[in-house]
Amino acid sequence: ALSVKCDVQKDDLSILNFTVKGVEDPELIIKSYGYPAETHKITTEDGYILVLHRIPRGIKGVKKKTPILIMHGLGSSSGDFINMGPDNSLGYILADNGYDVWIGNARGNSYSNSHLYINPNLNPEKFYNFSWHEIGTIDIPAKIDYILKVTNQSKLYYIGHSQGGTIFFVMTSVKPQYNDKIRLASLMAPAGFVSNVPDPVIKLMSGYIDEIEYILEFFQIYHIPYLDVIRSFLQNICKYDNYYALCKEIFNIFGGGYNDEAQFNKSIFTKLFATTPSDASRKQFVHYFQEVKSGKFQRFDYGPGKNLRTYGALNPLKYNLTAVTAPVALYYARNDRYIGVKDVEKIASKLSHVVNNYLVPHEKFNHGGFLFASDIRPLVYNELMRVMKFY
């Protein structure tokens, strides 16, 4: 139950009359801070058109010409790595430290919502028929190959947040040849095993995931609906001081936020909701709920009949984490409602080359803190870059 007091003033009635806007262009956001920016598009083998936003160099420091691919979490986008500005957003910090920064967008999100043959508005059932398995086995390898070709490099750094960790594990276990293309994978709040998720609502819902999926299918909901309306409404309402408590609770509930007021600046809302939340398929969410329920890290569970036709077995195939041989650094938090400490420790025990196992030294640090905390740089990013220098 959530109880938030909001004093509606007469002047606040504009919250009911706002203009619906699309997401802001990350290239324009980057350039507004004085950094060079590029937008690249690639097409996957199954026809999805994916967008990469690039910061080829910083505005200070020495250019090392070493490429980095950054991948976002569920319901997120490249915007979350640039919208907090040069002092706090990872994209600028890495660029100023000399790296060639490429920030990816998974298929189906607000920037990668095109296909060669399928219109997502006319045929959403077919367009959004993917989970994070396809993102890991098709999208990320395509991005890596493209970046290495453009930069004339043989290896790159990989940084992932939440689902960004999931798809790395999927890629390197299903396509182990890509381990050789990774200098170092730095994974923040990585989602692999998720059965120990601290959030009680997720725990509860996972027990009824089959029924929930049936309802969503009945109402033909294949992705997150009304995103432009949601973003525009949040941008509009969160500019009022009277609604600060409500906006903070929305952020904490749906963004895995943090509760430490010293880390939380209400000025982030207008920046945050310009790009967030981003779109994702229903199947991505369902796949995670299946993992919570089963306690396994495995492919999508279609039920015995379709599993047999798809995998040649009654149960989904498990991801072979022993095949992940690239160096991996893990960063996680004790107060993260979405990624439990026990689950990260379980992932670490399965990997052969963990080079850093870093629990953030702040008791209240949470899932969203890896992107938006005001002290993220000293708490996480400095350590992340320190380890990168060894590779």
From TrEMBL:
InterPro entries: AB_hydrolase_fold, AB_hydrolase_lipase, Lipase_euk. The active site is at S162 (nucleophile), D336 (charge relay system), H367 (charge relay system). GO terms for molecular function: hydrolase activity, acting on ester bonds. It comes from the Eukaryota. SUPFAM superfamilies: alpha/beta-Hydrolases. Residues 29-84 form the Partial AB-hydrolase lipase domain. One of its GO terms (biological process) is lipid catabolic process. PANTHER family: LYSOSOMAL ACID LIPASE-RELATED. Belongs to the AB hydrolase superfamily. Lipase family. This is Partial AB-hydrolase lipase domain-containing protein. The lineage of its organism: Eukaryota, Metazoa, Ecdysozoa, Arthropoda, Hexapoda.
